[in-house]
């Protein structure tokens, strides 16, 4: 297959208005909604939901999802194109805390070289998702990078296959799946045309208090009293490692937890601690 020169191709797209430059501070990312079996995703594109730190490349510099400039070493970004990309800064399954720690460092650090920029969209390009992602696939076919790759996409033949793949990824320690409508245009905010698929739901809450433990957990954390964004408070007592019970998340920090539906009161069922939102300040 013969590829066009990516630089010439992108310049032509800029001239035609098919790719535009979006000011980093002014942009709002496209975000997924939660998958429901009522949505027919047959024919959509599926990929693993990588548990990393979201990154935005504006063609010259790498930023966090909140618009803060990041500080990767030059070799990490050397082969990235001169047009915007979105992706996850990812160190592998189960490495979110380490990844967030590396990404927030104020000076270029060799820890970055343990990470890769896993690309899932070309936000400034026009056209559907398939057309947008082809632009960066063509780029890396000519400019391969050790530190960046385009996340593979697989067509969903039916809902049974989707759930089988979800079970496989979760057994490997993955977080879940993302499914995208192939012809979906890029739009800011939550979109029904991109969905996250998990066997559980997750949410965020603020730590209000540390509640003491009993029995095996006497003398250390028993549970957290946390507050949802709507002001509801509840106790969160499972999912903690021994180290986390001895050194619990600080009061005032935001944590992520998983749960399985809600009671009529709105309180999450079977909540379990996942992690501190260490990327909240990024």
What's the arrangement of secondary structure elements?
Blueprint: H1 6-16, E1 30-34, E2 45-48, E3 53-57, E4 62-64, H2 74-77, E5 85-90, H3 96-103, E6 116-121, H4 129-142, E7 148-150, E8 154-155, H5 159-171, E9 177-180, E10 189-197, E11 201-212, E12 221-227, E13 233-236, H6 242-246, E14 254-259, E15 272-276
Parallel strand pairs: 1-10, 6-7
Antiparallel strand pairs: 2-8, 2-9, 3-4, 3-5, 5-6, 9-10, 11-12, 11-14, 12-13, 14-15
Task: Assign a percent range to the helix content.
Answer: 10-25%
CATH fold call of the largest domain: D-amino Acid Aminotransferase, Chain A, domain 1
- Total of helices: 6
**Which class best fits the helix and strand makeup?**
alpha+beta
Regarding quaternary structure, how should these chains be classified?
single chain
Query: Average pLDDT, to the nearest integer?
Result: 88
Rg from Cα: 20 Å
Low-confidence stretches: 1-26
What would you give as the CATH superfamily of the largest domain?
DNA ligase/mRNA capping enzyme
User: Which second-level CATH architecture of the largest domain applies?
Assistant: 2-Layer Sandwich
CATH class of the largest domain: Alpha Beta
The geometry reads as globular
Question: Strand sequence of the main sheet, in spatial order?
Answer: 1-10-9-2-8
Beta-strand share of residues: 25-35%
What does this structure look like?
It is a single chain. The protein is of the alpha+beta class. The chain has two domains: 6-11 and 22-197, 2-Layer Sandwich (D-amino Acid Aminotransferase, Chain A, domain 1); 201-276, Nucleic acid-binding proteins (OB fold (Dihydrolipoamide Acetyltransferase, E2P), Beta Barrel), CATH 2.40.50. It contains six helices and 15 strands. The chain has a five-stranded mixed β-sheet. Strands 4-3-5-6-7 form a five-stranded mixed β-sheet. Strands 13-12-11-14-15 form a five-stranded antiparallel β-sheet.
